Amino acid sequence: MKTIYANYTASVTELKKSPTALLEQVHNEPIAILNHNKPTAYLVPAESFERMVELLDEYLLAKEVEKRLEEDFEPMKVDIDAI
């Protein structure tokens, strides 16, 4: 049995009728779309999706920073008077 990562579910048929009405019924919460009682997609409000993308971007950036901090580097000599 698959885990459903939403408090609400709807069938593909319900989704075809009116995606907007579905979101309104559940007060803009994510909805698992079921096909033959198995989750096949999620209907997520635009604001939630945009926030997920931002969080993923921040996570990936933090991982890149960690990776670079672990790399060995040699300090660069700079002559302040040359500026």
Structure description:
There is one protein chain. This protein is an alpha+beta fold and 83 residues long. It has helices at 12-17, 19-25, 46-70; strands spanning 8-11, 31-35, 38-43. The longest helix has 25 residues, at 46-70. The model has no long low-confidence stretch (mean pLDDT 92).
The helix count comes to 3
Ends distance: 66 Å
The name CATH uses for the topology is YefM-like fold
The total number of structural domains is 1
Question: What's the mean pLDDT score?
Answer: 92
Output the strand order for the largest sheet.
Answer: 1-2-3
User: Largest beta sheet, briefly?
Assistant: 3 strands, mixed
What letter string, H or E per element, gives the SSE order?
EHHEEH
Q: From the helix content, strand content and strand pairing, which structural class follows?
A: alpha+beta
Instruction: Kindly state the number of beta strands.
Output: 3
The radius of gyration is 23 Å
In helices, the fraction of residues equals 40-55%
The CATH class designation is Alpha Beta
The dominant shape is elongated
Unreliable segments of 5+ consecutive residues: none
CATH architecture: 3-Layer(aba) Sandwich
DSSP strand content: 15-25%
